[in-house]
Amino acid sequence: MANLPQLSIALGRAVTPLPWGPKGARPVRLIFLLAVPEYATTEHLNLMSGFSRLHKEPRLISRLLAATDTFEILRVLTEVRWRVHSPTPA
């Protein structure tokens, strides 16, 4: 996204599953929206990789759905194996 100053993430949680994607796809209860600056392609790929790993962790998904506040959600997300981009030494 041009002129976006920083990467931003929004999380939507639904009490009842929502239809999402093509007809016949499984309904969802968690939706992550990403706004990614043009320069943050590596960070974007690392996030997508982490979300893919999160998808395979039913225990963490259940905890995200049950979280009662932002701090609890962040606590759960810190348990996901995120790849962190390390700057190349100069």
Major beta sheet summary? 2 strands, antiparallel
The number of helices is 3
Judging from the principal axes of the Cα atoms, what is the shape?
Answer: globular
The second-level CATH architecture is: 3-Layer(aba) Sandwich
Structural class: alpha+beta
CATH H-level homologous superfamily name: Mannitol-specific EII, Chain A
The total tally of domains equals 1
Strand order of the largest sheet: 1-2
Average per-residue pLDDT, rounded, comes to: 88
* Helix coverage percent: 25-40%
- Series of secondary-structure elements, N-terminal to C-terminal: EEHHH
CATH class: Alpha Beta
The percentage of residues in β strands lies in 15-25%
User: What name does the CATH topology carry?
Assistant: Mannitol-specific EII, Chain A
Q: How far from one another are the termini?
A: 28 Å
Low-pLDDT runs of 5+ residues are none
Radius of gyration from the alpha-carbon trace, in angstroms: 15 Å
The total count of strands amounts to: 2
Textual characterization of the structure:
- This protein is α+β, with helices and mostly antiparallel strands.
- The model has no long low-confidence stretch (mean pLDDT 88).
- The chain has three helices and two strands; from the N terminus they run ββααα.
- Strands 1-2 form a two-stranded antiparallel ribbon.
- It has a single domain (8-77), classed as 3-Layer(aba) Sandwich (Mannitol-specific EII, Chain A).
- It starts with 7 loop residues before the first strand and ends in a 13-residue tail after the last helix.
